[in-house]
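User: Can you model how BES sits in this protein?
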Amino acid sequence: MEKTQQFIGQNKDKFVSELFDLLRIPSVSADPAFQNDVKACAEHLAKHFKQIGLDEVAIYPTAGHPIVYAEKILDSALPTVLVYGHYDVQPADPLELWHSPAFEPVIKTTEIHPEGAIFARGACDDKGQFFMHVKALEAMLKSQELPCNVKLMIEGEEEIGSPNLAIFVKENKTKLKADIILVSDTGMLANDVPSITTGLRGLSYVEVEVTGPNRDLHSGLYGGCVANPINILTQMIASLHDENNHITIPGFYDKVQELTPADRAEMAKAPYSESAYCQALDIKETHGEAGYSTMERGSIRPTLDVNGIWGGYTGEGAKTVIASKAFAKISMRLVPDQDPVEITKLFQDHFEKIAPNSVRVKVLPHHGGEPVVTPTDSFAYDAAARAYEQTFGKRPIPVRSGGSIPIIAMFEQELGLKTILMGFGLDSDAIHSPNEHYGLFNFYKGIETIPYFFKNFSQQ
Ligand code: BES
Ligand code: MN
Ligand code: MN
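Assistant: Here's the modeled complex, given as structure tokens:
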């Protein structure tokens, strides 16, 4: 990989400026106002994939946003790596909290990134990360050092739950035949503590609606006499956790895999500072389920969180009113072997059951996804771990993450393939938040590490 590494060293500025071009396209999948930008982003990528010499470059339309595909097949006898990523991004709002515009990338230094970080929506999640694979591939192709076959599948709907990728995968199993899936869409512990993500939580996401009287009421004339949907909704939500912060939905924990004390002891070895954690978030203390550490609460334990809540009057001044309706969006992060469909049903039954007679409730399920845990005793994991050793000079630590990438479990079911989650982001990179950024160190280190994975993996 000498020539490849040399090519990378000589083209660092070019790589960053190309990533900037990609980040300038506001490919927000959730908002229909950006539909043409999402399409333009897919076209931009397809053009770029052709430029760097990939074959079979195609944009596959779906009922939603398109999938971009490309490949390089050297020899059918060689192993094949299927790289997955997403070119769609989260909405940038609240816009006023960005220090520079979300779709005008700039490099600024931070305490954690003294060498500079790229600030833009999608810089880390996931444009900056999947683009590392594109650049690593370009370097290997230019240097004639690509050691195995590669297929590239970059979708435009990850941030909205990948509703159409599942269909595409089911319909294109032959096209997607490979030996391993490789994804950079997660994080690592710190720039001097490399880690490989070995698990993702699943997700059940619901919206609830509580209806009281048939119209908004004067809170003086009717207050005290009818159920206030906002009061009721907040009481119902509060009852979903007990005093130990356990979730009270009957059956919620039935399928949760408990880790052995040995596994938990192993997990506890990962470096973690409670005070640094609190300081970074400006909180006095952490909060969560009794009996578990912060690291465990955020990875191996399921959760229930209100993501948004609204109803009644929220404008200027005071309006004395009892609203007819109240709403909330609620996410539940799931761990093996919880099933998102089952959990959604448990939530729905429970929520309807605890509703007092004075209101009516509706539960509307949104997208979901299954949890995954990836093996650490496989040849592919070792190939990845050795790649990190080659570039960081340290063996990476396996870490289960709290985030979700719903399509990963589906890849395993439909394609029979395991996934290696080689993420290079940091928790402090503010993904989904204002001022999202991605360290130049992380971007370059990823581009340097990926070719070693290809090399190591092809030597089986
Ligand atoms: N890349 C993230 C997931 C992630 C980030 C996993 C960091 C591990 C570490 C992904 O784009 C994402 O945001 N997923 C969503 C789920 C999706 C259905 C909207 C999530 O986790 O909320
Ligand atoms: Mn992502
Ligand atoms: Mn995301």
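A couple of observations from the model: The first helix runs from residue 2 to 10. The pocket of manganese (II) ion (ligand 2) is lined by residues 86, 125-126, 158, 185 (CB under 6 Å).
User: Helpful, thanks.
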